[in-house]
């Protein structure tokens, strides 16, 4: 086997291990296990240190209390001598044996007058701590192994407070340390048991999280495979339930967009095909009648010309939709006199209003100048006003008003027309949507005007609102900032070798 093939074998074996180590299951287990285990160890250490300190402090305070009593008794005669010690010897020996210790009574000349072990009696004790105690200072010492403690107390004359001797107590700490060792062993045992329990809990928790995420991942994979249905909610954890809910909202919107796209393509095909079909029928009719009169040719060609104009209007509106797309379209903003703009629009549309026997009224509450794209906004407002004229009643009226505050300007188009049923009001801004398809085609509409209007308003960072009641007229309100707010710059990202085009 070559070195290269051997390397691939090693990598193929190590890769699953690396993936396992990187998995949430493993890392979740390690985090929960080690955090809990470290917490237990630290707690047990603190507990044992606290016991050791409390046991030591209690033993020292007991010895100090007893030593202070002995020192007070020995100070009564005014000096420390062998005779003054005699009546307390038995008590001192008993106390020393009870705490497994040793007691020395030393006079002010550092001569040992009494030793419970009898080893240092009548000897002179040379010690820095003993000499310091003659100055009235108490000293305490604990050896490095912590096996015993030495406490030195001065014996003070009750009259003049002079030091007449010292007491030296050496006592063992084996008893409390033995208890501490037993507690330490018990704590270690409990720690091992708790560690095992924590390991099981950590593994169960990590497995539960991993399982929930795996379920969510498999549901998302179904979407990737083309099954655009709502995913099953993952109720194991609040956050995952929220993620599932967000995915379902996204899927509902995606299905709605997909349905809209399919309907849009179908409508585009139908709208473009209808005039072509009409022209073909008219042309075939002429071709089937070689002896047709000039009047018939003129009539048929007029109809063909009308269908061509209709086709041209549909194509122009489609191109406008692409050009006015608020994400990709450009906007040429400049200060514009909106009063003059609306007057020009109304002047251009007044012949249509006269033809339809509709009164056209313009109300301006103040002079308004705003930063807008004059061409695009003119098209948007024209669509609103023209629709109000065409879908009106005989001898009806259309009222257009202009107003502004310190931040926005408002254009309101109110008509006395046929109105829009409430169930259709959420859809009128969709492309090719018509409430009354037969009547819309009769008025020459393509079903794209309101969609174009909404796109233009959105390009200006404004909003358009609708209020309508069937057989009681319609009101459109447009609100746009007086000062144009430029969009934040962004960089187009390449995908699949090219920039993504605006979708119709």
UniProtKB/TrEMBL annotation:
One GO term in the molecular function aspect is: kinase activity
* Enzyme class label: transferase
**Which chemical reaction does it catalyze?**
ATP + protein L-histidine = ADP + protein N-phospho-L-histidine
Task: Provide the alphabetized UniProt keywords.
Answer: Kinase, Membrane, Phosphoprotein, Transferase, Transmembrane, Transmembrane helix, Two-component regulatory system
The transmembrane residues are 26-43, 183-207
PANTHER family on file: PHOSPHATE REGULON SENSOR PROTEIN PHOR (PTHR45453:SF1)
Q: What is this protein called?
A: histidine kinase
Source organism per entry reads Catonella massiliensis
